[in-house]
Amino acid sequence: RQLALPRDKSLPPVVFHYIPWFGSAAYYGEDPYKFFFECRDKYGDVFSFVLLGRKMTVALGPKGNNLSLGGKTSQVCAEDAYTHLTTPVFGKGVVYDCPNDMLMQQKKFIKSGLTTEALQSYPPLIEDECEEFFKHDLGLSASKPSVKVDLLKTMSEMIILTASRTLQGKEVRKHVNGKFAQYYEDLDGGFTPINFMFPNLPLPSYRRRDKAQKAMSDFYMKIIEERKKGETDHEFDMISSLQGSVYKNGVPLTDRDISHIMIALLMAGQHTSSATSSWTLLHLADRPDIYEGLYQEQKKVFGKPDGTFAPVTYESIKELPLMDAVIRETLRMHAPIHSIYRKVISDIPVPPSLSAPSEQSSYVIPKGHFIVAAPGVSQMDPLIWQNSKTWTPERWLEEKGVGQAAVEQYTKSEQIDYGFGSVSKGTESPYQPFGAGRHRCVGEQFAYTQLSTIISHIVRNYTMKLEVPSFPETNYRTMIVLPKNPQVSFSVRKQDV
Ligand code: HEM
Fold first, then answer.
1. Distance of CA 264 from the midpoint of ligand 1 (Å)
2. Rounded to 5 degrees, what are φ and ψ at 162?
3. Do residues 170 and 234 lie in contact, with contact meaning Cβ atoms separated by under 8 Å?
4. Which cofactor does it need (predicted)?
5. Is the pTM of this model over 0.90?
6. What is the C-alpha R_g of the chain?
7. Residue 1: how many other CB atoms lie within 10 Å
8. Residue to probe by mutation, ligand 1, list 267, 434, 446, most atoms within 8 Å of CB
9. Residue 294 CB coordination number (10 Å)
């Protein structure tokens, strides 16, 4: 017999739980996808659950995603959902510590820093960092041809080295292994699910976070000050691009605002890209045929008659369909963010098509709930994707590939200007690893450039092997979906004869 809680029929069904305040915290926290898929079977696409005293309502599937990510600002609010987590880390006055209209303008400033010219300047710098890292930090050479590593740790280092060399600026790169590393570690220690659920605990990690926020913010302020004196030249980094930005009302972005945006960008890109590169390489180590395919693709596009490779360029990345498919497919199965939250600020009517067939009447998601989007559910839905649980980059390659067709079938092509540039609304798409709507990621192009360049370097120069008996499982206890115990080895590639 199905256990059920007594309920108000004007509200979504509530997931059964025994302990009132605790609710479904363990069930959801341990494996959110298992929780989402099992609850969808029982309750339909829209259901509520209790999470440590908060009322969460999940809206699944392309239409559910639209309800939340495409929601009007009069209905859903990201600031109210995130500010207690992000403001102590990023700092005041930016992102979720300001009205939404200001965030939209900040995103526009960031976008105008990620010009084609800027992106074109990044691959050589990224390649340079990769070369240095594999040869010197990992010490790979003819005399030490193989090394076993924790892949997540290795990729986290690669991502911070390459992001600091490009987006963050050369001063950050210079200190990235010194004082900056400590600030980052302490700040990151304050960006956890515990901080999300309990914003004000008297724990040492909270004090360390606050100290690190101030130190990190002052560190960027100093860079800006020095630059104003004209003592440092710089490349196409974000600090120089943000300097001089002015809001529509004529108020300029302050140096402190720039510092806080820089911290936000660091945090937004670091774990997402470390996780994505790690999962990609794990799958490649597991599928030597695809790894070989990528190597052949590198030879075809960059190979020179003397057996060496031409440098990766921003334009040439677009000529790597297999690379694109490999990253795209990894993001389908391992979207770094499993739950996207908004606070409901006025009742949201649920369209009848989203209610379970057993429901007699339509209902609302009431003001005060959090609405949860989980794009990963539609990205792994067997009703939408063939072999949804299997990593199949080929699905993106076939003529009008199965992957692309699945996306197009559901995606409205409507373009919409949220203030930071015209983007495909895409809020009803079954594929949204970068989110959708007004809060959609502005870092996608940078992330693809960074990931494709790093993976190109690895594929050209090294082979890989999984050093664990089975493919790593997923850790959902962190803010970002990470692999557990991802041990692999890199070996220097024997040059083709
Ligand atoms: C927003 C994913 C890399 C900057 C988002 C969102 C997602 C996402 C899902 C939407 C969040 C929401 O709706 O609440 C990813 C993935 C990445 C990545 C999968 C890499 C594989 C980056 C990078 C940067 C960045 C490298 C910076 C250069 C941002 C910013 C937002 C955002 C500024 C906007 C937040 C908002 O409007 O509320 N990202 N991201 N991301 N991301 Fe990314």
1. 10
2. -75, -35
3. yes
4. heme
5. yes
6. 23
7. 3
8. 434
9. 21
Question: Is the CB–ligand 1 distance for residue 435 below 6 Å?
Answer: yes
CA of 497 to the centre of ligand 1 (A): 43
Specify the CATH architecture of the domain 25-492. Answer: Orthogonal Bundle (1.10)
Query: What is the number of the ligand 1 atom nearest to the C-alpha of 104?
Result: 37
Residue spans per domain, the chain: 25-492
Q: Is the CB of 280 under 6 A from ligand 1?
A: no
Task: Check if 81 has its Cβ closer than 6 Å to any atom of ligand 1.
Answer: no
- Tell me, in angstroms, the distance from the centre of ligand 1 to residue 435's CA: 7
Q: From first to last of its 497 residues, what are the pLDDT tens digits of the chain? A: 456 666 787 899 999 999 999 999 999 999 999 999 999 999 999 999 999 999 999 999 999 999 999 999 999 999 999 999 999 999 999 999 999 999 999 999 999 999 999 999 999 999 999 999 999 999 999 999 999 999 999 999 999 999 999 999 999 999 999 889 999 999 999 999 999 999 989 999 999 999 999 999 999 999 999 998 886 666 789 999 999 999 999 999 999 999 999 999 999 999 999 999 999 999 999 999 999 999 999 999 999 999 999 999 999 999 999 999 999 999 999 999 999 999 999 999 998 888 766 666 678 999 999 999 999 999 999 999 999 999 999 999 976 556 666 666 665 556 666 666 655 567 888 999 999 999 999 999 999 999 999 999 999 999 999 999 999 999 999 999 999 999 999 999 987 54
Q: Is the CB of 320 under 6 A from ligand 1?
A: no
The length of the chain in residues reads 497
Using CA positions, which residue lies closest to atom 10 of ligand 1? 435
Buried b / exposed e along 146-177 (16+ C-beta atoms within 10 A) = ebebebbebbbbbbbbbbbbbbbbbbbbeebe
What angle in degrees, to the nearest 10, is found between the helix axes of 204-228 and 179-188? Answer: 140
